Model the fold of this input.
Amino acid sequence: MERNKLCWCGSGKKYKKCHLAIDNEIARHADQGEIVPTRDILKSIPQIEQIRKSADLNTAVLDHVAAHIRPGMNTEEIDRLVYDFTVSHGGIPAPLNYQGFPKSVCTSVNNEVCHGIPDENIILEDGDIVNVDVSTILNGYYADASRMFLIGNVSKRARRLVDVTAECVELGLAQAKPWNHLGDIADAINTHAQANGYSVVEEIGGHGVGLAFHEEPWVSYVAPKGSEMLLVPGMIFTIEPMVNEGGPDFFIDEDNGWTVYTEDDGLSAQVEYMVLITEDGAEVLSK
Ligand code: MF3
Ligand code: CO
Done:
């Protein structure tokens, strides 16, 4: 890009006073053989503004679920809460009809790793742990985050898994800053999970998000420190490890084609933050 033209990012500054330095730094890393983000992975300031609005609605949907979730509720009721709240605030639930997904939210209970389908016959019972994964489209911009909920009195064993999973995501977030790598986030997560006797699912990862539901890069949570894509301001992606109390293996429901279960029937937990890499760190857009 020409040095004296306005920067592509929408800052209103000249390119030479804005992204030129960042682009040179990216090029330097690329020359060393690293995986670096292409321009289309980096969001412009106007895009970030729109994505932030979608993320705020996404967080509000999660807050709405948090205010209403209770023992005895079936997961279809959670689906209705998500659909009604999202639509009444001008949004669209991103999962609905996504690659044939039949509902507005994923609800994954106990040994379900992810992509659980809300169902009136799945009733939240005392002692259950459930992940509610909410994804929102607002004015064409996408957001994605999930929380764990403890239903009634939950065993110490299940609570520890949920607590450690939340800690994993915070430790990953602490590594989310410019010129680190996605592998630094993964290593922080995987190391903490393993130190607690848990395992991290390998084949299902996180993703870029914002202009589409699932964008580049694909994000591993078992990659080694220093590996994978370079982190650059303007990247938006999810930190969403699935942590199993037993082994990392899983299988997919043959009948519905979606729900992922642990192979060994152990418990699984997941927490998902949607993060923006900023000039000096990361901002959580939705959690
Ligand atoms: N929110 C899930 C994710 O993190 C969405 C899975 S696709 C769906 O990518 F259709 F199941 F919603
Ligand atoms: Co996601």
